[in-house]
Target: Adenylosuccinate lyase
Amino acid sequence: MQLGSCFLDSLTVTSFFGNAEMRGVFNDRQLMQSWLDVEAALARGQASLGIIPQAAADAISATARLEKLDAAALASDAEDTVHPLVPLVRALTAACPGDAGRYVHLGATTQDVMDTGFVLRARAGLDIVGRQLDELVRLLRRLALRHRSTPMPARTHGQQALPTTFGLRLAVWQSELQRHRARLREMRARLLVTSMGGAAGTMAGYGPQAFALERAVAEELGLGVADTPWHATSDRFAECLMVLGLVASSGEKLAREVYFLGRTEVGEAYEPQRATQVGSSTMPHKRNPIRCEAVIAAASTLRAQVPLALQTMVAQDDRDMGVGMTLWKLLPECFILIGGVLERLVEVFGDLGVNPDRMRANLDITGGLVLSEAVMLRLAGPLGREQAHHLVMRVVRDSLEQGRPFAEVLRGDPEVAAALSGGDIAELLDPLSYVGHAAALVDRALLTSESP
Model:
């Protein structure tokens, strides 16, 4: 994570929460270039059907590059027209040689070009998310295999519950991310389609070959064809942002786990720290989990946008630019945020500090109380489950109130001593004897889930 370059890129604190590759896709230049790409594809599709001359389509395609247009004229026209696309169409028309400009934007409407451009950028963004998610899953799987039998305390309700393994916890995390990978794949077919409704969704402006033109443009752009116009139906984008919200929520959970495990009092795992990294401007001993904190902030911000994404589905009539402009704002923000979330997590888990000795030491903090279930279940044989539960609860209470080791109180209790020998008690209070099928569950998770 290059803090310096992040801040210097745009001189804003918010740039810390994104990543450079995603910002390169979701900036104003790429926004306009995506619209130019759609205009060029429309011209090529029309030429393939004989609607416009091939030479005109070739000229439009060759000219539809932002660097070939008059930036000053674009800015001035945008101020005059107060319109998102018309200045770009005018600039492209003026820049085309000969009479090619007369065929620019033929039959199309602004929202066709804008929505299809948004789809193109979403595809590029999803490609980045997919690569990042693949890498994060790969790192978690590697760690899960390495620590499949590393014992640590399982915690429920904020307290130690039973022994588990760090590998199992990692395997659970990677399984959750695997489901997000599947969701992203399934969503693409619904999202990555052209918008070709024309002015009011009837495709009237595209003429008698409208359906053929729609297929041609979709093929030019590598997109699918929607069965109906979708100017007023934003469920595709809403679903996309909901899935990004799911990924962000899982990412925040992972960051919070590392944040907790790295506490001074816990010390079981921690965010990597560079030799030059400064934790605090005043306390040299601090090793602050700054990446995890950035993930928590970015993920919570992204998740807060999901209700607004759902609100965009409530469009009025056959077109509603209030919805369109909301998406114009939401899509870049959410993609940039998720790009930052995943980049930070890859950095954290790529070099995660793990302290197995501290995990084992923490297991021993309770003096064996963390094994109370194992003792209770062994006593359930001769005594019955209910009586065994009451007996062990009483022994636990005595141990805590008297400040005596759990094993000592167990050995001194007549009912327990009648059912268990000293050797039995020692065996039952060994954390390694009660991790259940944790290692096998790791193996099953890694075998049955997809390896990136």
User: Anything to note?
Assistant: The beta strands are 151-156, 159-165, 269-270, 353-354. The two ends are 23 Å apart (CA to CA).
